[in-house]
Amino acid sequence: MSERVVLAYSGGLDTSVAIPFLAEQTGGEVIAVAVDLGQGGEDLETIRKRALACGAVEAVVIDAREEFAADFCFPALRANALYMDRYPLVSALSRPLIVKHLVAAAKTFGGTVVSHGCTGKGNDQVRFEAGLSALHPELKVIAPARDYAWTRDKAIAFAEDKGLPIDVSAKSPYSIDQNLWGRAVETGFLEDIWNGPVEDLYSYTADPAEPREADEVVITFKGGVPTALDGRALTPFQIVDELNRRAGAQGVGRIDMVEDRLVGIKSREVYEAPAAIALIAAHMELENVTVERDLARFKRSVDQRWGELVYDGLWFSPLKDSLDAFINDAQKHVSGDVRLTLHAGRAVVTGRRSDASLYSYDLATYDTGDTFDQSLAKGFVELWSLPSKIASMRDRGQA
């Protein structure tokens, strides 16, 4: 029986060329799977027809925008997921969802091999293949760029030789990956880390230095999940999509960083994530209001580990499952409204309210009506300081 190869298909040059190339290398048939994660660009039907025209025996296109927002972006939001305290896991979140649909296609069409366009230098090869190992370990994997040293020049020559119906002339100076949660830009002149990013590489965000009126938005959360903007109930996709436009118009969410890749190298990355950065700012502040101190302190370490696991391609792992259970429990009181001012590249919290608030005006105020018994503080401070006091007395005695 010949191989059936399930290809993660984007519709671009590299994956279009991969269809006949994989058919030649394996002697099998190729099933193309394209997933809409809110990345924009061509419509799904155009992409489906191109895959078939390039030789795919089947072409599956999936509108996964709501699924991506609800089941991947919002769990990351509840974990305040920022790898290295800055990167909101734009590409890392999309890979396990693509893997899920690749596995489903393999089961439907009898696929024996899965193929992706990742190189051997990046994180995504690990994310794809670790996910495949967890969900369908029997599948073999071919990565043409890595396994056959497949370069863009070779891809262009192959496309021209085969007369494939794709444009091989367009060449961006950058490598770009984008979806609903944000946009990642790398390579080209950015590989010199002294070079500053230029304005034309940005797409999701306007120049934050340009003068404009501020935008104020009220985000409603229930159990740590956004449910409405300015009192309008919206779906997860609609919330992220609208905030991408509104926060992006204010230049919110630009990130320029040198990042520790999983494969051991440092990489310069430029990100745009307007909705993600605005939502995380709002969610963190609502947690400050509604989550008890020790739980909040511990959750911050869980959040960091959660982000590292997802960055490292371990979405489908026992530890992440257990951390999800903890986060779900920790979010049960994270409900209420947060008011954000979006302006000049920043998302600033200016108001918060919640029926589950742990903030007490009567305890916090310094004015008349203060219910905090300050007479208790003296003994508390003495007992709190006692271990350090005893240690200091010991050390001075040994000096």
From TrEMBL:
The record places domain Arginosuccinate synthase-like N-terminal at 4-165
Tell me a Gene Ontology molecular-function term this record carries.
ATP binding
Task: State where L-aspartate binds.
Answer: T119, N123, D124
Q: Which Pfam family is one of this chain's hits?
A: Arginosuc_synth
Protein location: Cytoplasm
**What does it catalyze?**
L-citrulline + L-aspartate + ATP = 2-(N(omega)-L-arginino)succinate + AMP + diphosphate + H(+)
Establish whether keyword Cytoplasm is in the entry: yes
- One cellular component (GO) term of this entry: cytoplasm
Binding-site list for L-citrulline: Y87, N123, R127, S175, E259, Y271
Q: What is an annotated GO biological process for this record, any one?
A: argininosuccinate metabolic process
> Pathway involvement?
Amino-acid biosynthesis; L-arginine biosynthesis; L-arginine from L-ornithine and carbamoyl phosphate: step 2/3
Q: Indicate whether Acetylation appears among the record's keywords.
A: no
Arginosuccinate synthase C-terminal domain span: 174-390
Which top-level enzyme class is recorded in the Swiss-Prot or TrEMBL entry?
Answer: ligase
| EC number per UniProt | 6.3.4.5
- Name the source's superkingdom: Bacteria
Q: What is its main location?
A: cytoplasm
The record lists ATP as bound by A8, Y9, S10, G11, G12, L13, D14, T15, S16, G117
Which keywords fit this entry according to its UniProt record?
Answer: Amino-acid biosynthesis, Arginine biosynthesis, ATP-binding, Cytoplasm, Ligase, Nucleotide-binding
Q: Which family does it belong to?
A: Belongs to the argininosuccinate synthase family. Type 1 subfamily.
How does this polypeptide assemble, per the annotation?
Homotetramer.
Protein name (record): Argininosuccinate synthase
From the broadest rank down, the organism's phylogenetic lineage runs: Bacteria, Bacillati, Actinomycetota, Actinomycetes, Streptosporangiales
**What's the encoding gene here?**
argG
